[in-house]
Amino acid sequence: MDAVTNALATLDEPADHLGRLVAAFLAGRRSRLTAEAYARDLTSWLGWCHTNAVDPLDAWPAHIQLWLTHLAEQRREAGNTRARRLGAVSSWYGWLIRHQAAPRNPALLEREERPVRAPRKAPALSDQQTAALLAAADLDSRRAAAIVYLLLYTGIRVGELLGATTADLGEDRGHSVLHIRGKGGKLRVASLVPPVMLRLHAYLAERPDIAGTALVPAEQAGTGGPRPLVATANGRPLDRKEIRRLLRRLARKAGLPEVLADRISPHSARATFATSALDAGVPVRDVQYAMGHASPVTTEGYDRSTLSPDRSPAYRLLTRFGSGTVET
């Protein structure tokens, strides 16, 4: 919301009215993570409107198309990002129309006018690559180890990790867990296995802002004032871009292929979690719950095992066609 407030601060007389409409819309989102994501996307749209002297409450589809072109050509944003922004802006206008605050939804574009989503998916890591990344995190720092182990062993979204606090730690039937508020405000728990808790305890124990806080009390969430579960050296929440930079730096230290190290992201950790769990025979229902998906179809979409090159029929054909070696 702060980002939207800053953008609106540059507007003149309509700023207060527009700001109230944005604030009311975001306040109605059940999940804080969703509200923050919508705020970032609305900031992009409202900032463009201000720069180009467009009244957001009287915008037309042509304005939306110009904005999307700007994002693609000037900001170099990918199709997936632009499609997400368009969806957020369309949701806002839908809310405005229901409250009789806007005459139309300019974000309802024809199919051929919408951004094309890139077919490439975030890559998943093999078991050997995952082990190498975990080892590199252990050698880097306690914070790096805590972050990477949490992402790979729980499959939580990066926004859920960054939004978690020490008060979200707890126990459930003898298991260490992290209480998570996911998309749509849905609550779930992520099990924290011993390797994760070992790194998390070591990291939290060295943080001066939570010294002496009980981390995993029995039967309830953590006691004491809540602090970000992962934070900067000053105890402030991390930015998701910092997590991506950390993963790419560690991927290079781990010796992962350059093409993979350049593309790895927190989403790759979720893909790795889903792919490895399903490949290990974990029921889709259990993986679906762990990842906070409403549908098992979404969970199966994260499974990269069916796309793995080692499943290519070409390797089976080697036994039929021969190795193809050439004698010299």
TrEMBL record:
Pfam families: Phage_int_SAM_1, Phage_integrase. Residues 120-317 form the Tyr recombinase domain. It comes from the Bacteria. Residues 9-97 form the Core-binding (CB) domain. Keywords: DNA integration, DNA recombination, DNA-binding. Gene3D superfamilies: 1.10.150.130, Intergrase catalytic core. The keyword ATP-binding does not apply. Belongs to the 'phage' integrase family. PANTHER family: INTEGRASE_RECOMBINASE PROTEIN MJ0367-RELATED (PTHR30349:SF41), PHAGE INTEGRASE-RELATED (PTHR30349). This is Integrase.
